[in-house]
């Protein structure tokens, strides 16, 4: 009996690839239809693993792929224990609706916080080992020999005494009927032969040939196209829509109105967009209309001196130590809102019928997409089918809030036909869930010998937790806002206090690659440089002393400094900066080499980035994610700011929300410390040290302290 | 009605004359490998070849295309399973991350290498202005040099 489930599968991916993209997709093709494809009839060994007769191994991936490489690294964890031929492995997404139906056999599908490998590795390695034991048991039974005399390697099972062999494909059907072993032993890490090796990503071939793998590429029979207009002032509501101009426009099917948006549905997207621009929409802007970046900044500055702050970590007696310090160092820092700016604008395709809703979404959490779609359609969760597609970038934009799924379902419900909703870039820039605004007042006390005796950090800014999950607040403080400054702040300071004065705004905030580490590392690591300068110490040596009791951090810091040649001569006009920060259970230190160009702007030439993430599955992914995180962090440091004017976002597109381009990309050298012993994150960890390391290099170059970002607002010539 | 030649095939399309080529390709012809990123010719995700020249198709009205030959990512390779040298270099060096910008990036680079078969880093800096939010630029630069090498040595793609 086959244990294969009836899974609604994205069969169109294979179908459309063969047709050059012009084929329209049929939806709701049952998993069994795969039998008709060239792949033949695969057998599900465990929920994670399907084996085809030709030895192709299909490994299911529960997490989303947004560029970070999980679609390759997660199957590697399975394949290591399965002992299959890696060159015959294919990956596919486990469908969220099947996860629900099968009691979450694939676990939590939320993809973020750089934790996919850390939270999945045990289950995935066990899944591989379990399937391997089932395959061996089936072969042993066929040969009537003890399983202990059989080994598995490279998709072949061998009976060692007799030399008989069978391939995984040849024994898979029998293996599927074997009861899974209750216990399996996992390999000792020293015996791994796939984990820890650089492997080509499984998604690259589709991505260099333009295959329709993204949600924005979906095409369905009878499909219509929509675009959306949302209230420019956050939290405003719709009053009236005058759509009389649309009467003369061709191909318009419907104007859909909801409390917080108006959408136009047409027979192609261009017509929908033109019509949306022709609408005369009246909004009730609400209370937010009076808010500007100036009023927000004033509120944050008030927070820096306010009495309502809640402490996150308290060691010793910081005020007493400050009063006794031989030298005090003080500085205020601040950072703006930032948008995610995924290259693929927000979009979702939905088809809603009386008893079913089906969505194709660029989602970082397929289970949340399912819940959002069910809620918007007014149907039970069991009536929802979610197709997870490759994401054209995520960075935290598409996980917790899936506004695009809700909107697509609401629109499709009114239309009765499949609808593809695609936002304009302008809507995308102006309706994000932004990295929060934040400010910090840093106060340090140094002894006569330059030793740090006290450090006080007052933060002020907007809480993500207050908007997302207020119950997570502990004793009234959003500890998430203090990421990197709590127990995860590694420096040895006898008297330490960090607290937070929450100052929320009407602007929606969310998780942006590295979340609150992104600003806290900037505050902390720039200020450590200020302390080093006040102490008359080298910034690297000063940090080494503070990390005297932290060998792991010290090793990472030393690796960055050594590989960068800290202390060695640099080319004329080039200066170095250094920073280190713990995040996502990993440690990253960076040394940056930068100069100031004739326009007074910083140019980054080289970044040496050292990371200790414990076990590393695919070193190539770590290098790529490091390069990516540095480009992301550098874009923000140089250019990134979302400003608020009259309650709305001032920026709109890439001309005024500038992205780093190729000519500005520094040479990145990634140093991986494969220390083992733990499973840390990678995708976000190299973001936080980038801005402070750069600003510290600018200080070395100019003597000017940068205490606010982005750098484009600073003229470094007159320093 | 407009007549377009796309990837060597002739198509008759009934579209508004001001409709950008991008949307004709994606919505009318179903060639969705060409991507929408910004709509204002900033990011280059929509880059296609018009008579061999790189063009940001989001800002080119279909009425301006005339009889020019259009090539998209779907038609870049010589045919069958073969890859264009730029695609082969991209695959070999594992350039893409999310991959969304890469169709446009590959089309821009393919046209650039026709003009400059052995570019310097400065040539690459000046010519490749497409945006990649994943920051694959370092690998793009290496892959451009690799593709130039493939071209020079006349190597066939894998």
Describe this structure in words.
The complex is a heterodimer of chains A (about 725) and B (about 160). Chain A has about 725 residues and is α+β, with helices and mostly antiparallel strands. Chain A contains 18 helices and 29 strands. In chain A, the strands form eight sheets. Chain A has a seven-stranded mixed β-sheet with strand order 12-13-10-20-17-18-19. A five-stranded mixed β-sheet of chain A has the order 15-23-22-21-16, sandwiched between helices. Chain A is globular and about 80 Å long. Chain B folds into two domains: about 70 residues, Roll (Ubiquitin-like (UB roll)); about 70 residues, DNA polymerase, domain 1 (Orthogonal Bundle). In chain B, a hairpin with a 2-residue loop joins strand 3 and strand 4. In chain B, helix 2 crosses helix 5. Chain B is globular, with a radius of gyration of 15 Å. The chains are: A alpha+beta (about 725), B alpha+beta (about 160).
Rounded Rg of chain A: 27 Å
Counting H and I runs of at least 4 residues, what is the number of helices of chain A? 18
Morphology call of chain A:
globular
Give the amount of beta strand of chain B, in percent.
Answer: 5-15%
Strands ordered across the widest β-sheet of chain B: 2-1-5-3-4
Largest interface: A-B, 65 and 59 residues
CATH class of the largest domain in chain A: Alpha Beta
Q: Which regions of chain B are unreliable across 5 or more consecutive residues at pLDDT < 50?
A: 152-158
CATH superfamily of the largest domain in chain B: Beta-grasp domain
């Amino acid at each position: 009996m086959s244990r294969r489930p009836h899974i609604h599968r994205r069969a169109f991916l294979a179908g459309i690839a063969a047709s050059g993209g012009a084929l329209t997709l049929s939806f709701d093709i049952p998993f069994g239809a795969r039998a008709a494809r060239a792949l033949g009839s695969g057998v599900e060994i465990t929920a994670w693993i399907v084996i085809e007769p030709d030895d192709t191994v299909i490994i299911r991936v529960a997490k989303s792929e947004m560029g970070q490489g999980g679609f390759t690294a997660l199957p590697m964890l399975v394949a290591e224990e399965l002992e299959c031929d890696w060159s015959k492995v294919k990956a596919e997404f486990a469908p969220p609706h099947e996860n629900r139906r099968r009691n979450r056999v694939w676990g939590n599908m939320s993809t973020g916080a750089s934790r996919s490998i850390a939270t999945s590795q045990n289950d995935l390695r066990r899944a591989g080992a379990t399937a391997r034991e089932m395959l061996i048991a089936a072969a042993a039974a066929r040969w009537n020999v003890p399983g202990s005399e059989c080994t598995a390697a490279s998709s072949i099972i061998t009976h060692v005494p007799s030399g008989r062999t069978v391939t995984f494909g040849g024994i898979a059907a029998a293996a599927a009927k074997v009861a899974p072993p209750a216990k399996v032993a996992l390999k000792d890490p020293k015996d791994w032969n796939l984990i820890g090796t650089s492997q080509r990503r499984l998604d690259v071939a589709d991505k260099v040939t333009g295959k329709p793998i993204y949600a924005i590429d979906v095409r369905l029979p009878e499909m219509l196209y929509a675009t959306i207009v949302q209230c420019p002032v956050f939290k405003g509501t719709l009053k009236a829509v005058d759509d009389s101009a649309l009467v003369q426009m061709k191909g318009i099917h419907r104007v859909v109105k909801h409390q917080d948006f108006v959408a136009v549905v047409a027979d192609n997207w261009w017509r929908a967009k033109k019509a949306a621009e022709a609408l005369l929409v009246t909004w009730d802007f609400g209370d937010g209309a009076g808010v500007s970046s100036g009023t927000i900044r004033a509120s944050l500055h008030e927070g820096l001196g306010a009495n309502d702050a809640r402490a996150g970590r308290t060691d010793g007696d910081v005020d007493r130590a400050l009063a006794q310090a031989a030298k005090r160092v003080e500085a205020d820092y601040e950072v703006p809102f930032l948008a995610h700016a995924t290259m693929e604008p927000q979009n979702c395709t939905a088809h809603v019928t009386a008893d079913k809703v089906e969505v194709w979404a660029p989602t970082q959490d397929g289970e949340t997409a399912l819940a959002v779609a069910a809620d918007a359609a007014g149907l039970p969760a069991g009536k929802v089918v979610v197709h997870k597609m490759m994401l054209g970038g995520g960075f935290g934009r598409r996980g917790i809030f899936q506004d695009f799924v809700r909107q697509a379902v609401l629109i499709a419900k009114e239309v009765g036909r499949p609808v593809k909703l695609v936002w304009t870039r302008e809507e995308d820039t102006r309706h994000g869930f932004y990295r929060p605004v934040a400010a910090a007042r840093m106060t340090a006390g140094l002894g006569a010998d330059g030793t740090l005796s006290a450090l006080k950090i007052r933060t002020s800014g907007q809480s993500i937790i207050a908007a997302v999950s207020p119950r997570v607040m502990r004793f009234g403080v959003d500890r998430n806002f203090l990421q990197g400054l709590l127990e995860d702040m590694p420096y040895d300071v006898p008297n330490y206090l960090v607290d937070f004065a929450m100052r929320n705004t009407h602007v929606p905030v969310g998780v942006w690659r590295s979340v609150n580490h992104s600003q806290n590392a900037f505050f902390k690591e720039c200020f450590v440089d200020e302390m080093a300068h006040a102490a008359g110490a080298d910034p690297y040596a000063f940090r080494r002393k503070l990390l005297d009791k932290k060998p792991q951090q010290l090793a990472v810091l030393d690796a960055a400094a050594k590989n960068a040649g800290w202390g060695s001569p640099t080319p004329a006009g080039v200066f170095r900066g250094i920073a280190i920060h713990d995040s996502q259970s990993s440690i990253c230190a960076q040394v940056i080499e930068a100069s100031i160009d004739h326009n007074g702007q910083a140019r980054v030439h080289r970044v040496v980035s050292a990371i200790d993430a414990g076990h590393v599955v695919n070193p190539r992914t770590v290098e790529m994610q490091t390069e990516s995180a540095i480009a992301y962090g550098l874009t923000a440091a140089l250019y990134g700011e979302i400003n608020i004017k009259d309650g709305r976002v001032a920026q709109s597109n890439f001309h005024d929300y500038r992205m780093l381009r190729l000519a500005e990309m520094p040479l990145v050298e990634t140093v991986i410390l494969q220390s083992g012993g733990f499973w840390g994150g990678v995708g976000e960890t190299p973001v936080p040290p980038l801005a402070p390391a750069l600003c510290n290099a600018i200080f070395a170059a100019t003597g000017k302290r940068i205490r606010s970002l982005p750098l484009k607002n600073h003229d470094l010539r007159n320093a | 009605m407009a007549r377009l030649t796309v990837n060597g095939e002739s198509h008759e399309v009934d579209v508004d004359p001001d409709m950008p080529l991008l949307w004709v390709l994606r919505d009318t012809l179903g060639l969705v490998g060409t991507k929408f990123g910004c709509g204002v010719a900033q990011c280059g995700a929509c880059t296609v070849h018009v008579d061999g020249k790189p063009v940001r198709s989001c800002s080119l009205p279909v009425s301006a295309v005339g009889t020019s030959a259009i090539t998209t990512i779907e038609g870049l390779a010589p045919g069958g399973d073969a890859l264009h040298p730029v695609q082969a270099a991209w695959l070999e060096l594992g350039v893409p991350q999310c991959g969304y910008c890469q169709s446009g990036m590959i089309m821009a680079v393919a046209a650039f290498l026709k003009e400059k078969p052995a570019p310097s880093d400065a040539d690459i800096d000046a010519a490749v202005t497409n945006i990649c939010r994943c920051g694959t630029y370092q690998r793009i630069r290496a892959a451009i040099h690799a593709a130039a090498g493939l071209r020079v040595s006349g190597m066939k793609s894998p």
